Amino acid sequence: MPARSDMAITSDTRLKVLLADDYPAFLESTRKLLEPEYHVIGTVTNGLMALKMAMELRPDVIVLDIEMPGIDGIRVAQDIKRSGLRARIFFLTVHEDADYRAAALAVGDGYVLKARMGTDLRHAIQQTTM
Description:
Elements: E1 16-20, H1 24-34, E2 39-44, H2 47-57, E3 61-64, H3 73-83, E4 88-93, H4 98-107, E5 110-113, H5 117-129
Parallel strand pairs: 1-2, 1-3, 3-4, 4-5
Helix pairs in contact: 2-3
């Protein structure tokens, strides 16, 4: 059988990311921010779908809002950790409160304020996935 040198084999070696936020416009801006470096494999607008898609898609990184319909982001992270999925979990939120931060970091790998997303989110992901 002749070699198939005319076929290009490509593989996307970027980390796979799942995004969850209840505001579609915010999901889109987050996707655009991350896509040059990461492969965004899904976006969802509630906690139940975040949990379902995390189990189905098995991303490397999950970015969760804390307040979402269905199940909040902290509970989603707890359920994901209990399932054995080894994704890195980052919270992207408007909450600056120390209690929210402590609860999120107890189950996640990073906590980024939405107001600082443009400067801090990619850096936070890079720091924990290298």
